[in-house]
Amino acid sequence: MTSTYLPELRRATRRTSGAPGARPAQPWPGEARCAVAITVDMDGDGNEAGIGEAPLGIHSMGRYAARRGVPRFLDMFQRHGIPATFFIPGYDCKQSPDLIRRIAAEGHEVGSHGYMHEGFMMSDEEEERRLRLTHDLISDAIGKAPRGWRSPYGQKTRHTMKVLKSMGYIYDSSDKDTDTPYLFAPHDAPGAMVEIPNNTPILSDTSWYQDARTAPSDVEREWCAEFDSVYGGHGFFILTFHPRPGFGSGMPARANVIDRLLQHIKSHADVAFVTLEQVAEHVLAGAEAFEELAI
Ligand SMILES: [Zn+2]
After folding, report:
1. How far, in Å, from the CA of 115 to the mean position of ligand 1?
2. Among 67-71, 81-85, 188-192, 234-238, where is mean pLDDT lowest?
3. pLDDT (tens digit, 9 = 90+) per residue, 262-272?
4. What are the residue ranges of helices labelled H in the chain?
């Protein structure tokens, strides 16, 4: 099997050995050796608006995401012929509905990412209002309800999952607790959801560029090494990028790191590029092969 966009998934029916270096413990979509999920957290000027900053001057970097970063990523993904999953704050959807429609029209998944990228704690009622507002804004913009959610700043509560489940969400991608997707039972809600962990300290651009000020060439070497380890091991590789300058990969030299990483990944046999919705559907369909937690 060659690296490919995977239009539909087959039901997983077997559990294989999880010995290090062996075939993955969980069969991945299409029974690929390695599933690769490219995710983008838009983080537009809702980030600034959410903390009361006028999006001007030094606080205008969020606008770069809509004007340059997202279009640059879309062109790159189209060139590579791969799907990605974009997590969009409701405020950013309201600011740039045509761009969000372009993301969906080009075959990518659109998920929710807070309203104004709020990371602070709030009442259950206010949290639910913002979750539903964002859900409606995205649904109205693209004509399809989002089925996945990623928490801004990685914060969520039991209440969050219950509300999302009631709106038809099938997965969350916020936790950092393991390498591979798993099922969980949301508190006080019927049925299971899927957690798709994203280990942002390593597998996101922010910690490298904002916290450590690492050179793009070093980031490229690190991510290629992470992919090689996953390819030889459990076979599920997820990355998170931001289309901003500053802490993101929106500007040309950093976007080129992603471009070369995709070339590196595609040079390996038996790799499937997948959206997180595809991963979640795959896990739900083959639940017997996946770990389940009660949360
Ligand atoms: Zn974010």
Report:
1. 10
2. 188-192
3. 999 999 999 99
4. 46-49, 61-64, 70-80, 90-95, 97-105, 124-142, 158-166, 200-203, 205-206, 216-231, 252-266, 276-285
Dig out the tokens for 159 from the structure. Answer: 């209440």
- CA–CA distances in Å: residue 166 to residues 147, 151, 188, 270: 11, 17, 11, 36
CA of 197 to the centre of ligand 1 (A): 15
Distance of CA 152 from the midpoint of ligand 1 (Å) = 5
Q: Return left, alpha or beta for 47; rule: phi > 0 is left, psi -120 to 50 is alpha, else beta.
A: alpha
First to last CA, the chain: 37
Query: 173 C-alpha vs ligand 1 centroid, how far in Å?
Result: 12
Q: Spell out the residues 6+ positions from residue 284 whose beta carbon is closer than 8 angstroms to its own.
A: 170, 183, 192, 194
What is the set of domains in the chain, with CATH numbers?
Answer: 4-8+51-294 (3.20.20.370)
CA of residue 252 to ligand 1 center, whole Å: 20
pLDDT digit string (tens) for 139-192?
999 999 999 999 998 788 888 999 999 999 999 999 999 999 999 988 888 889
Q: How far is the CA of 116 from the centre of ligand 1 (A)?
A: 9
- Measured in Å, residue 21 CA sits from the centre of ligand 1 at 33
